[in-house]
Design a protein that fits this description.
Chain lengths: 69, 272
């Protein structure tokens, strides 16, 4: 793929190489165990992070794992 | 279904009965319903009070803690006069003061792998308002095994999340969203990171609304959707949440068979 522009929490980000959700999280330095990832208003199952390729125009939001009551 | 209501009940529930989506039949469904609330804290307080006020006929309250002064910034079912009292009994007393006509089952102990399935088995719908991940995963797995709808909410700082899990009806479960608890210390607890009291009130009230919708069978439920609220930005977002085919609790190759994988006494992670 060529360059792709995505947004992460509303911030534009340019990807120069084919990138998976797992790859992006590693680049950002987010611990997979404390977030869920929303891509185009849909949660990406954690089991699919390594096989979900990001595409131009994707909008990602990081959902924080919280457990207070 | 018994549709007989006393004159005082007709007056008490008149604003419900006026709603075409509720009416006398809906009010009778509420009276017949049995809802278990796990956790009588920041979420459980408004949740229990609204369920009782709405006329949900049987409400179980599970909480093994006692009322502490630091709870009263947000846990509005409790009171300064009941400091030191059991939280389940305290919440039941507050609910009874609003509506003496509902049955309140006080379970003054922690949910454990040993008692979870028995407790949950006696109810139609389960609500998670607990304050630690160990209990959240225990409630979630027990609901999958018992095929009970789980209306789940969580809070931290200025944020709230809400969903309804009905894997037995084709929807995702809690583990489809969060497969495993975070390791201890990775996600801050509310006692470490804080929570705005009113945020727990909003989320517990949303939870009560979703429970009432499930009982009444009206509107769009939250199964298959996750609501995320950022109170500082004043923004609600609703995100699609599909079953994870690799989910070990509810997927086609699920390995969850019982609750033996849970620690016998979930550690307290966060005193919300």
């Amino acid at each position: 793929m060529g360059e792709a522009t995505i947004t992460v929490n509303g911030q534009a980000r340019t990807l120069h190489d084919a990138t998976t959700v797992a790859g992006l999280l590693a680049t950002i330095g987010l611990d997979l165990r404390k977030v869920a990832v929303e891509r185009n208003e849909e949660i990406v199952p954690k089991s699919a992070y390594a096989i979900t390729m990001l595409a131009d125009g994707d909008a990602l939001e990081i959902v924080h794992f919280i457990g207070g009551g | 279904m018994n549709l007989d209501f006393s004159d005082t009940d007709i007056e008490r529930y008149s604003r419900h009965i006026l709603l075409a989506e509720v009416g006398g039949i809906g009010q009778a469904k509420l009276r017949d319903a049995r809802v278990l609330v796990v956790g009588a804290g920041g979420l459980g307080s408004p949740l229990i009070l609204y369920l009782a006020a709405a006329g949900v006929g049987t409400i179980g309250i599970v909480d093994g803690d006692t009322v502490d002064l630091s709870n009263l910034q947000r846990q509005i079912a409790h009171s300064a006069a009941r400091l030191g009292a059991g939280k389940a009994a305290s919440a039941a007393e507050a609910a009874r003061a609003i509506n003496p006509g509902v049955r309140l089952n006080v379970v003054a102990k922690r949910l454990t792998p040993e008692n979870a399935l028995d407790l949950i088995g006696g109810y139609d719908i389960v609500c998670d308002g607990t304050d630690n991940f160990a209990t959240r995963f225990l409630v979630a797995d027990a609901c999958v095994l018992a095929r009970k709808p789980l209306v789940s909410a969580a809070v931290l700082r200025f944020e709230g999340q809400l969903s309804t899990f009905k894997p037995h009806a084709g929807g995702p479960c809690y583990r489809c969203l969060y497969p495993e608890p975070p390791p201890d210390g990775l996600v801050p607890t509310c006692s470490e990171a804080g929570v705005l009291g009113a945020v727990t009130g909003v989320m517990g009230t949303l939870q009560a609304t979703e429970v009432l919708k499930e009982i009444l069978g009206i509107g769009e439920g939250m199964a298959g959707r996750l609501l995320v609220w950022d109170a500082l930005a004043a923004k609600f977002r609703t995100i699609r949440l599909n079953p994870d085919p690799a989910c070990r609790a509810c997927g086609p190759a699920a390995t969850l068979r019982d609750l033996s994988g849970h620690a016998p006494a979930p550690a307290m992670a966060c005193a919300v």
